[in-house]
Structures are given as C-alpha cells and as structure tokens.
Task: inverse folding
C-alpha cells in the first residue's frame, strides 16, 4: 500500500515519506553474454501546471535497430554529481526546463544485453517552474533526433504501447510504464 505525507509550503506541495517503487527487470530481447559495466542514471516524469507530461521522442537507427521511441528525459550521472544536480541538469539539457523536484518515484534496475550494460535508473517526479532553451549534445541531435513530446497521461500510455513494436521499445516501455503509472497515483494523491 502506498502512503505519503504532503508538506505545504507557501502554496507549493511536496510529497514526502512515500513508498518508493523498486523494480528489477531483465532484458528478454537480446541474449545475455556478459554485463561489464553499470550506468547510474537520473530520469524524470515531468509535469506542468495543467498536468501535461513531457517526454523525449528519439528516432534511432543503430545497433538496437530502427526505432521511434518515447522516453523520459534524463541521462547519466556525471562523476562527482549527486542525483538532484543530475536531474536538474538533464532536464535543462533535454527539455529546456527548470523544475522543482516533488519526490523520488523509485529505482528501476534493468539491462541492455546488446551493449553489456546494467542501468540503475533513479526516477523523480518533477514540476516545471520555467521554460528555456534546450542544450542537446551532437549525438542527441544527429543520432537520436531528440524532440519534446507534451502529452496527457492517457496519450503517454498509448504512445508507450505503440512503441512496443520494436525490441528496444519493449525494453523502454517495460521500464517506464510502471513508473508513469506510479507517478499518476502520486499526482492523484497530491490533488485530493
């Protein structure tokens, strides 16, 4: 059962002391040969005042195959960086937004067998406080063709389901749909 406390400070709500999601997932799309590195990642479910959800769209054609994906914004935690700093930086880079972190949703451990990697995904629920310029890397622009998606909750669910037609799309949806659903429960709790 999910439990939480809500802290109200000058009209802002912050979710505290809720049970965090913890998932351990396997890669059933590619054969496991060896896992030789871990990647610490900070990712976020991002909302605005109207409860629109913000994601990135990636158009890939690489070792994972050709795929168009929906994915939460986020990425690798840099050396010496804490999770809060990493999520703020990643959301500024990929979505061009400044955010308030509402809470940590949880942790999802998953694998990309094809590139021998274990992903340690820390997910946060964040609310946009300001829009600005994106700061995408050359790879994000040229290789992944990242763009921003602004969707309602039901549209986001449908988009993840649509992207399950590829192996990578299934891996991403398996990791992110439970997080998105947990975020919706948390948001509903804040609004009641």
Result:
């Amino acid at each position: 059962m999910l439990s939480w406390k809500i802290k109200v400070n000058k009209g802002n709500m912050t979710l505290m002391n809720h049970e965090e999601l913890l998932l351990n997932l396997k890669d059933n799309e590619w054969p496991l040969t060896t896992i030789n590195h871990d990647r610490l990642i900070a990712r976020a479910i991002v909302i605005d005042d109207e409860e629109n959800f913000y994601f990135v769209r990636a158009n890939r054609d690489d070792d994972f195959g050709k795929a168009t994906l929906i994915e939460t914004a986020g990425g690798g935690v840099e050396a010496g960086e804490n999770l809060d700093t990493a999520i703020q930086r990643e959301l500024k880079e990929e979505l061009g937004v400044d955010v308030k972190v509402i809470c940590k949703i949880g942790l999802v451990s998953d694998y990309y067998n094809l590139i021998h990697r274990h992903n340690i995904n820390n997910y946060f629920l964040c609310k946009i406080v300001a829009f600005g310029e994106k700061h995408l890397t050359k790879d994000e622009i040229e290789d992944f063709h990242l763009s921003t998606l602004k969707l309602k909750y039901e549209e986001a669910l449908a988009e993840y389901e649509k992207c399950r037609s590829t192996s990578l799309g299934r891996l991403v949806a398996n990791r992110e749909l439970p997080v998105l659903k947990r975020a919706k429960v948390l948001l509903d709790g804040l609004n009641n």
Summary: Strands lie at 5-9, 12-16, 21-24, 37-47, 53-62, 65-71, 73-76, 97-112, 117-131, 147-151. The longest strand covers residues 97-112. The radius of gyration is 16 Å. Residues 27 and 57 are 21 Å apart (CA to CA).
